[in-house]
Amino acid sequence: MRYLPLTQGDRAEMLARIGATSIDDLFIDVPADARRDGPIAGLPPHASEMAVERHLTKLARQNLVAGEVPFFLGAGAYRHHVPASVDHLIQRGEFLTAYTPYQPEIAQGTLQMLFEFQTQVARLFGCDVANASMYDGSTACWEAISMARRVTKKARAVISNGLHPHYVSVATTMARFTGDQLVTATPDLAAEADSARVIAEIDSQTSCVVVQYPDILGRIPDLRPIAEAAHAQGALLIAVVTEPVALGLIRSPGELGADIVVGEGQSLGVGLQFGGPYLGLFACKEKFVRQMPGRLCGETVDADGKRGFVLTLSTREQHIRREKATSNICTNSGLCALAFNIHLTLLGGSGLEKLARLNHGRALAAAARLAQVPGVRLVNASFFNEFTIELPKEARPVVRALAERDVLGGVSLGRLYPGAEALGNGLVVAVTETASEDDIETFAVALQEVLA
Amino acid sequence: MSAINQSGWRPEMGPAEMGQAGHDAGATFTGNRALMLEEPLLFEIGRPDASGVDLPETVLMENRLGGMMRAAQVDLPGLSEPETVRHYTRLSRQNYAIDLGLFPLGSCTMKHNPRLNEKMARLPGFADIHPLQPVQSVQGALGLIHELAEWLKTLTGMAAVAMSPKAGAHGELCGLLAIRAAHDAAGSDRSVILVPESAHGTNPATAAFCGYKVENIPATAEGRVDLAALVSRLGPDVAGVMITNPNTCGLFERDMKKISDAVHAAGGYVYCDGANFNAIVGRVRPGDLGIDAMHINLHKTFSTPHGGGGPGSGPVVLSAALAPYAPLPFVERHGDRYELVEEETAGEHHAGTFGRMVAFHGQMGMFTRALTYILSHGADGLRQVAEDAVLNANYLLRSLDDVLVAPFGATGPCMHEALFSDDNFAEGFSTLDLAKGLIDEGYHPMTVYFPLVVHGAMLMEPTETESKAALDQFIGAIRSLAVRAKAGDPLLKSAPHFAPRRRLDETQAARKPVLIWQPPLVAEAAE
């Protein structure tokens, strides 16, 4: 077998050194009735590279590939062009096959990358500090709510109705067991986000306010009045960014008063990958750093006085602190953080702004074109590269009919909010630099045909 | 911005300083030593207007940004593509990796990562599909998840599997939430989780994270769970136990079935930390041991790369008792079609679910890699994986137990990892010194100071992908270091000498954390 170096001769020699007569001697501690004598039944034997490749390729072909059709899906996962060098560099074995940098003398590559990543995320989010990543945006969002409870010693979280419904679901799952109270609401097809509702809900028992920016319908709320209202009651403002490319063109949440900013970093470097692995981003004000979850990389010096980097403040973490840790997270999204780091390095501040302008420009054009389709109404007053349109009929079957014409035309609100009838005609459309003018036209024409 | 490394020699230092700027030889102008290349931070070499991506200028005649348009571009330096490739290639060379050599981190399972896995995960049909595409357009992806799920259930002998957890600790969370949901459904408010003192730190952290009180169960002198102590603690307040098997001392819990039976009799559930499943895959099915929930680290047992700290993937197999509480979403097969069960359809036949743990469907990129590995090995190969992993570990154990203290060596064979203590080192020498000496010998150190039940623990896991020759050389290196540690060699105390950095000051890093880069003037002002 190609991944196993030991030969039968090696095995015999090694058993002799150990003093065992057969391999079964080494499994002697397993109770006799739990030992399986031969390969587990019902499973095929080993296969060649060629055979495995053939099987996987066959499965892959049964999927409609985003890059091969007009594609307009977003809702928390965005398709951007990733430069070829990103994937090449993250496949270097020294990055790909390294472990968490617990031995810093021989892990400076990963550690320096994490330090750069933390700095990039902090600057992008307008925060003092950022951690070395979480699993994804949804889990980072719950960790932020949890952290706000530790900071404020209160447990009532006011959630904007523009927060991604799956993020709300994740928080709801956890809150059921931790006793946090979540004040949630279902969105409506309104031009503006629910800032007024959120502000009205804040009281003296509120630990935090959670606002997505831009939100699930693509609207861009002004975070400043919310921050002010939250701070007046001793609550924290948590901003959630699911499309970091937007921050190339709109102001950072930190600058607008957010105390904790979390997000999904998949847009930069990582790709769609059917939902994972993705990249949780987590940043906050410096005064909260000791309540942060996850790994942190910090600068220090070695015995010769040379600058170097280490994982630090690990007394917050599970491997030291056990049940008193700030989180149970261990393995996070190191390689995705590297991909994000490289992509953002290739863009730089100027490239990010250009990319964001291009996205907004395409989205403006698409919004204008789709609004010309009879019966279609643009919902948003504001948006970046994603907006919601209201169709004259239920959007879910329309999305399926479009897919049958090889157009992936957005995410229906019926899929995101099953059972919410008032949202059934809503369709969330994302338009990135990967959507060409032809793609937009094809989409508009197909939509008109399907609606007719 | 100067690209000269701050650690290098500079003219103003004068010739007399040259020998001191470096460690054991004369310093160079660049701070480099031939192939050992120093690399400044991105923020020291990048420029705000540099870029490695060609993008058109977009003139916006209007914007719909709701008044939130930023005044200036984000302060992020860029690099051209050649500079980028060089920057990260140079950084990569400061890392140790499995591709370079033996990486014996106990419990972390650093085995070879087959490159076919990478190739398959990059097929556009898997890499370039959106999680919210209509299910009709992602039948192959759902089919792959289903196929992997079937393998995991069959290999473990369990009734169901939750695929969405993002890593091992997230899988633990999944298992404990299922346990809590089951107790809730039964109207029970049990509040305690029992955890052996040798457990991974994630176990007690996870139990606390979902609202449980944690109590420790002691180990026996043989390095296993103290069955009598555990049984005597069971009662109406105990929701369950978390046991690692094979355990963190590298030993199989001989009493596992008895533990499970006792916990079940007392109305609790058994969570098994499956971090060490690689030792028994294909030879033992956890379902036969009375386990109710166990996470499987695809990045350990099934060879998906660790990536310098993730991403991982932690599917959780569940017993029939816990299956009704499994999280959303999951894939179901209906004839030749696959459906994704989400909030909408869960109500009809999966009302007990404890809910959603992540935004989408889990670590698809890792599923592709793991299934590729599993199909490559097949049922026979996976069994051989466990056998070779255990054989390699016992070979280490019996080749080193005369020079190092093996606390449980006399009790029988180990499983996939061999545990030693630093009990016979010279005064003032400890595990850390041997570990750092190992770096100079060209190895990544073993897991150190874990498990906590052994003094100065050294936990070595060679995995099945090491050849006998590689093991023999490693054994030679450890034997030589053991001799030096016992003799009190001062050069060992200051090791490593040949790594890109010598020992780093972790105290300073924690006392005054510098977590992001700031321009020198800002950094100075903050002093």
Label the overall shape of chain B: globular
The SS-based structural class of chain B is alpha/beta
Number of helices of chain B: 17
Helix fraction of chain A, binned, reads 25-40%
What radius of gyration of chain A results from the CA coordinates? 25 Å
Summarize this structure briefly:
The complex is a heterodimer of chains A (452) and B (527). By secondary structure, chain A is of the alpha/beta class.
Give a description of the structure:
The complex is a heterodimer of chains A (452) and B (527). Chain A is α/β, with parallel strands linked by helices and 452 residues long. Chain A folds into two domains: 66-81 and 349-451, Aspartate Aminotransferase, domain 1 (Alpha-Beta Complex), CATH 3.90.1150; 84-343, Aspartate Aminotransferase, domain 2, CATH 3.40.640.10. Helices cover 38% and strands 13% of the residues of chain A. Chain A has a seven-stranded mixed β-sheet, with helices on both faces. In chain A, strands 10-11-13-12 form a four-stranded antiparallel β-sheet. In chain A, strands 8-9 form a two-stranded antiparallel sheet. Chain A is globular. Chain B has a seven-stranded mixed β-sheet, sandwiched between helices. In chain B, strands 10-12-11 form a three-stranded antiparallel β-sheet. A two-stranded antiparallel ribbon of chain B has the order 8-9. Chain B contains 17 helices and twelve strands. Chain B is 35% helix and 9% strand. In chain B, helix 13 (431-440) packs across helix 14. Chains A and B meet through helix 1, helix 2, helix 3, helix 4 and helix 5 of A and helix 3, helix 4, helix 5, helix 6 and helix 7 of B.
SSE layout:
The complex is a heterodimer of chains A (452) and B (527).
Chain A: H1 8-18, H2 49-61, H3 84-90, H4 93-96, H5 108-125, E1 129-130, H6 137-152, E2 156-159, H7 165-178, E3 181-183, H8 195-201, E4 206-212, H9 223-232, E5 236-241, E6 260-264, E7 280-284, E8 296-301, E9 307-312, H10 318-321, H11 334-371, E10 377-378, E11 386-390, H12 395-404, E12 411-412, H13 413-416, E13 426-430, H14 437-451
Helix pairs in contact in A: 3-11, 5-11, 6-7, 8-9, 11-14
Chain B: H1 18-21, H2 42-45, H3 81-92, H4 115-121, H5 124-127, H6 139-156, E1 160-162, H7 168-185, E2 192-196, H8 202-209, E3 213-217, H9 227-233, E4 238-244, H10 256-265, E5 269-273, E6 293-295, E7 316-318, E8 330-334, E9 337-341, H11 343-349, H12 364-400, E10 418-420, H13 431-440, E11 447-448, E12 458-460, H14 468-487, H15 490-493, H16 506-511, H17 520-526
Parallel strand pairs in B: 2-3, 2-4, 4-5, 5-6
Antiparallel strand pairs in B: 1-7, 6-7, 8-9, 10-12, 11-12
Helix pairs in contact in B: 4-12, 6-12, 7-8, 12-14, 13-14
